[in-house]
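Moderator note: this is an archived Q&A kept for reference. The question asked for a predicted structure of one protein chain; the sequence and the answer are reproduced below.
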Amino acid sequence: GMLFPEFKEAADWRRIAIERLYKQLDDEVYPDGMEYELAAGYNNWVVTEFAHILEMAEMNGLRGELPADYQDKLQKMFNYLLFASMPNGAIPGLNDSGNSDVRGLLTTGHKLFPEREDFRFVATAGAWGEAPEQTSYAFPWSGHYVMRSGWDANATFLLFDAGPYGMGHQHEDKLHFVLWSKGRQHLLDPGNFSYDRSRWRRYVLETYGHNTV
């Protein structure tokens, strides 16, 4: 629909595609910007795909065909990456995921939303842009609560997970937390393991593999 606008049904193709993709964005992303699997790797893939739609619409002069709040919803997804990022530029890999560097994605976020100099700040490890004003941030729908001593490389960072059940990639990690301080992560998430029936798979899924009671 974008690349062959000369076809008489091209506008309908775009309309149907946008309707379906927007429904996915509305159904599968919480209002505070985290995809409902609540796992970094899956979330970042979804951010990338929805960002591509906006990028392609911009390239083809079709940004106006996207729903009025599409950009606001997408910006909230980048906002999650910003405030959930540890001092090394990665967000914690909760549920079926590992720690995931989001500086490249935040570079894309700054290109799409150039007024967000805080995206640029984290994307460049503080070399450019402006540090966010807030050091603590609540994501009430995702259930992630973040606090930090500052935005410098030696800052102390804690993410507390009081999130809802996260669809198919959920771990039993209610009230779990991760901690970064003085240049390294001290309390970790157990991460992911192959989708098999081994004891290691059970370990990363169960409560005793997490920093909780």
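Archived answer notes: Helices lie at 10-28, 40-59, 70-84, 103-112, 117-123, 199-205.
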